[in-house]
Amino acid sequence: xxxxxxxxxxxxxxxxxxxxxxxxxxxxxxxxxxxxxxxxxxxxxxxxxxxxxxxxxxxxxxxxxxxxxxxxxxxxxxxxxxxxxxxxxxxxxxxxxxxxxxxxxxxxxxxxxxxxxxxxxxxxxxxxxxxxxxxxxxxxxxxxxxx
Length: 147
Ligand code: HEC
Known about the structure:
mainly alpha
């Protein structure tokens, strides 16, 4: 009887040891590459992460943007509603006016999210499937130059 108990305790202890070693070996050094099969980020999270990790420098400027192309793309895609200078829609009608340029300068994550995924309740379209990532980078940088 006593021997059996010792055996069971020994096996359990071994099992716990194996589990412990296995989980200790699991830390984040096996991260899935962004966009790879094992990457479980939603497309929203992936897009926002791209902005933070790839597009913004430490001063909040957009890296690698072509402002001229941004101007052209803004004119084609955004001007019909937001106006050529971005001042046709005021996002804060009750208070201090907020236009697309102000939003892009002060709160790029919100600007970026809205441009990508829109806002059905407010009739802002989602451009995720319409405008390429590089083009969005250019639009975002250009929008920061608007009043
Ligand atoms: C069909 C008209 C239309 C087009 C085209 C359009 N927008 Fe909008 N956008 C809107 C409306 C309407 C709102 C919501 C305004 C409100 O709620 O005050 C909005 C809101 C936004 C906001 C949210 C601002 C905030 O912080 O609340 C951003 C950013 C934005 N648009 C960017 C863009 C960009 C960039 C483009 C071009 C790629 C674009 N929009 C094209 C109609 C449009």
